[in-house]
Amino acid sequence: ECARVVAEDYADKLPRTYDELTALPGIGDYTASAVMSFAFDERIAVIDTNIRRVLSRVFLGVESRGGATSPAERALANRMLPKDEILGCDADVADNAGSAEHVVNSTIRGGKRSRLHRGERPSVTWNQSVMELGAVICTAKSPLCDTCPIADDCAFLKAGRPGLGERRTRPRQRFQGTDRQVRGLVLAALRELPAGATLPREDADKLWKDQIQLAACIASLDDDGLIEILDGGLRLPS
Ligand code: SF4
After folding, report:
1. Are 186 and 227 contacting, i.e. CB atoms less than 8 angstroms apart?
2. Which CATH number is associated with domain 179-235?
3. Closest alpha carbon to 228 in 209, 204, 210
4. Exposed e or buried b per residue across 113-127, where buried means at least 16 C-beta atoms within 10 angstroms of its C-beta
5. Number of Cβ within a 10 Å radius of residue 94
6. What is the pLDDT, as a whole number, of residue 84?
7. Which residues contact ligand 1 via a Cβ below 6 A?
8. Where in the chain is the domain with CATH 1.10.10?
């Protein structure tokens, strides 16, 4: 669907603005930001799970607890995103420890004072570096702090890695009485029948007390192609 819209509305070329990208089917904040940064070299904070974890640990000294990205996390990501001055190949990067530039430089070059390549956009390199650091070094459960290139700048390590690996406890969805339960009951009843057999509608109606919910669930199973509704009853698709 996304490809069709790009073909029809944008003459086969991905649009270049955040608003246009996020209006495409299936493209959310993360994908739009990643495309703008990695494909179009735009200065934009990419926020995925790895980046959230690294930023929270390094700059705030606490675990990112998961769930939806908070405004504070987004503000932190924007604040730390390096500016996009293009540095010449001979330009030294200021050694201002603790700044985003310092950390990205350390991240890329293994902690040694170093230089950025000509034409390299710091914000793009930053997004890639922080994402990679979170994927291979600063992992959720077992961060490799002993070999981490930015260990000297990490507030989380300095604080003794408080609450390492802790996540927000998600409220469990109640199962009893949900459509999921009703759909499961209908499918289970059909699976108990011999192959190709039909469950009479009056028997199906006994599966659940709330007849309106039951009818809606039977209709949704039919919509999903998981059952067939016949004149006299229900059956699994042949
Ligand atoms: S020192 Fe440890 S916690 Fe801090 S960024 Fe590196 S791996 Fe992550």
Report:
1. yes
2. 1.10.10
3. 204
4. eeebeeeebbbbbbb
5. 11
6. 82
7. 54, 57-58, 137-138, 143-145, 148, 150-151, 154, 156-157
8. 179-235
Calculate how far, in angstroms, residue 115's C-alpha sits from the geometric centre of ligand 1. Answer: 23
Residue span(s) of the chain under CATH 1.10.1670.10 come to: 43-158
Q: Just give the CATH number of 43-158.
A: 1.10.1670.10
- Residue-level pLDDT at 96: 45
Atom of ligand 1 nearest to the CA of 154: 4
The class of domain 1-42 in CATH terms is mainly alpha
Q: How far is the CA of 49 from the centre of ligand 1 (A)?
A: 15
**Burial code of 23-35, b = ≥16 C-beta within 10 A, e = fewer?**
ebeebebebbbbb
Atom of ligand 1 nearest to the CA of 143: 7
- For residue 50, the CA-to-ligand 1 centroid distance in Å is 12
The mean of the pLDDT values for the chain is: 85
Ranges under pLDDT 70 in the chain: 86-120, 169-173
Q: What is the pLDDT of residues 73-82, one digit of tens each?
A: 989 999 999 9
